[in-house]
Design a protein that fits this description.
Blueprint (H helix, E strand, L loop, with lengths): L2 H15 L8 H16 L9 H6 L8 H19 L2 H15 L10 H14 L4 H19 L23 H24 L4
Helix pairs in contact: 1-2, 1-7, 1-8, 2-7, 4-5, 6-7
Length: about 200
Amino acid sequence: MMGKTHSSVAIAAYCSCRLPNTLEEIPTWITEISIVYFTALLPDIDEPRSKIGSMLLPIIPSWLRPLAFIVLSIILLTLGITKLNYLFIGLGLFILYLATVKHRESITHSIVGLFSICAFLYLLNPNYLLPALIGYGSHILVLDFITEKVALFSPFSNRRFGITLLRTNSFFEKLLFYRGSQICIFWLLVLKYVLPKL
């Protein structure tokens, strides 16, 4: 599915779980919604033409981004080896891996990726676990599962799982998922903040 659909559906799902009750809760809620938005796009980091790809490399045209990923990985590997910095070496190898593996067959679309991101955000703050689960999980376990199929057990297996119910950027995606999630968010806000005051 398109990046805007992933983020919109994830935000609608999170709003159905949690909306702020007081003004003091709004900053925390905005932080959590930002995590939902970012993690809903994060699995597509291996796709240079994706929304997150354009955020990371905004001035580079989409057709040149795979080459940019390879160049960046070589730079990081060179720096890591010359300075004996294992973080740069690991990051360089990971970016090289992302540049060479097929989209939806990398660990970004697997349970390993989901667990890694959730664990990292949980260690930062336990309250970030639910937003990460909803954002990242809705991307790989729901939306890509019903459109493109995903390699849930990558890097151990490249076998893809899913049910192809609709195609990416189709009329049904735009109507049911993108517009539907926006209507859902609006309705949740009305139910929470408008109807109780009538």
